[in-house]
Amino acid sequence: MLFGGAEIGAIKQITNKHEKSKAFIHYYNNVFLKQLKQADTSDNKQLKLILQNFFEITFYVENKEIVKQYLHYFKIYEKNGLAKTIDVKNMYHALIKNRMFKQAKLFFDTHEGVELEKLPNFVNGYGFNEQEITIFALDAENKNTLIKQNFNFSKNTELIIISHPRCHFCYRAAKHIKKDRVLSQFLSKHAHWFSPPDSAFYLDDISQWNNKFPNFTMKYIETSLDFPMLDYWGTPSFYFLTDGKVVDKLVGWPKEGRLKELKLLMRKNFIDYDSI
């Protein structure tokens, strides 16, 4: 029985994150599920291919239902004595990336022999509403605690910077921007530094970032599905939005920097930029 191969390879070539996700979901619903119904889970080779497919799909797709199925087949895989350390970590990372924290905690507690990142504590911020877009802010006094907050798109222009605390290009951008007083001051009020869903939280790294760049505090996005207008999630990516719609973007930060380009976009999209 074939699982994936050429189809997965072709889908991975798609550069637009949301289009790639749609293609993987289409593959999952129209190809993979049909093959799963015919699969023989007592056949270790088939079971291994099933796990590989789930890993590939959940690496690119945020979908809790798919991860639930992944966990179901992982348990069979593990019961058959096939699960290695990397398999355990991949499963755990899929749970974290998809923000399935209850399942992740149970998984963590039942795999003490594997080195896994312990989940942070979660507390609700003031006025937090689970029905609205959720972001996570690191507690400044306790780096093992994340505060759940809501995010609302502004009707005015704002800047969303997709970033990551381990991205050296992001560090370079922040250092360059910090040296420009006007730009730094303006971004501290009008920019959101967001880290996309990942397989780990890297709490120490984001704590160091926030200490080094207190005006560019980085927060975590719960799911990229809340931001369908952002078509590229490489870091850093600068998105200018008005009323939740992208009006401009700037991607990447080379060694020589992109301050000139960024400031041109600032003047174009913020009428009060030069009034500081």
Number of strands: 8
Silhouette: globular
The top level CATH class name of the largest domain? Alpha Beta
What percent of residues are in strands?
A: 15-25%
Mean pLDDT score, rounded? 93
Low-confidence segments, given as residue ranges, are none
How do the strands and helices of this protein lay out in sequence?
Blueprint: H1 6-11, H2 17-38, H3 44-60, H4 64-79, H5 85-97, H6 101-109, E1 121-124, E2 134-139, E3 142-150, E4 157-162, H7 168-179, H8 181-190, E5 191-195, H9 203-212, E6 218-221, E7 237-242, E8 245-251, H10 259-269
Parallel strand pairs: 1-3, 4-5, 5-6
Antiparallel strand pairs: 2-3, 2-6, 4-7, 7-8
Helix pairs in contact: 2-3, 3-4, 3-5, 4-5
3D architecture notes:
It contains ten helices and eight strands. It is α/β, with parallel strands linked by helices. The relative contact order is 0.10.
Brief account:
The protein has helices at residues 6-11, 17-38, 44-60, 64-79, 85-97, 101-109, 168-179, 181-190, 203-212, 259-269; strands spanning 121-124, 134-139, 142-150, 157-162, 191-195, 218-221, 237-242, 245-251.
Structural key phrases:
single chain, 276 residues, alpha/beta, Glutaredoxin, 8-stranded mixed beta sheet, 46% helix, globular
